[in-house]
Design brief:
This protein has 106 residues and is mostly helical. Helices cover 89% and strands 0% of the residues.
Length: 106
């Protein structure tokens, strides 16, 4: 592998990994979680699935009581930080590989 290809691979991995948490952040806000649960609750009630209704009601109550958008944003920021660390480690590995290949070709 040449250095240019490794650089492109590194950039692609970085962009892909870092976009994942951000791409899903909007559908993970508290209001969105509650909307999804309410829709599932209506469906369970329409199909008389009492076990599912009770579980969804507990989940909805838990989100209403404990969920904050600030917490979700903090978790998303932590996911990004962890992803950046993974990318840094991958880049180190490709640099090590490049160094070994360079030494082999000397």
């Amino acid at each position: 592998m040449n250095r240019k290809w490794l650089g492109c691979l590194s950039l692609a991995v970085t962009a892909g990994v870092l976009s994942l948490p951000a791409a899903h952040a909007a559908d993970r806000l508290c209001e969105d979680k509650m909307t999804v649960l309410r829709q599932q609750l209506e469906h369970a009630q329409a199909h008389d699935n009492q076990h599912r209704v009770r579980g969804l009601q507990r989940a909805l109550h838990s989100i209403e009581e404990h969920c904050t958008n600030e917490q979700i944003l903090a978790e998303a920021a932590e996911e990004i930080r962890e992803s950046q660390e993974e990318v840094r480690e991958l880049e180190e590995h490709t640099e090590e590989l490049d160094s070994l290949q360079h030494r082999l070709n000397e």
